[in-house]
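Suppose you are handed a protein chain with no further information: no name, no annotation, nothing but its sequence. What can you learn? This example shows the usual starting point.
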Amino acid sequence: MNPPGQDRSAVMSERQNVSTGSPYEPAFGFSRAVRIGNVISVAGTAPLAPDGKTVAVGDAAAQMRRCLEISRLAIEQLGGGMENVIRTRTLLTRIEDWEAVGKVHGEVFGSIRPVNTVVQVVRFIDPEWLVETEVDAVL
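A reasonable first move is to predict its three-dimensional structure. Written in structure tokens, the prediction is:
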């Protein structure tokens, strides 16, 4: 749905997409992050190293750091910063990791304090992933 008074071509002309090189982006047809106007949404972000391999297998806190680093880089490419984040979502395969990943979230967002949801999921595409994040920002 387009904002009132805007046609589809106007919205598409202001759209900016960011790719981070994940092999899943072209395979599944999605962008790491999209900016339209002053809104940035970052897709579900897994703890992947630049070579596409999972970082810190078995360490949910380190994986959370990597997920947030990937999101930060994408937001910065679109002209924002972590101070613009208004919502985060934390998805865990082991709910008992909530405190460890929560501390990492607090390191990054302690003074920003976006809304956050933490949920347990059954599994991710790669069983080595313990956490994925989603992030939304408004500039």
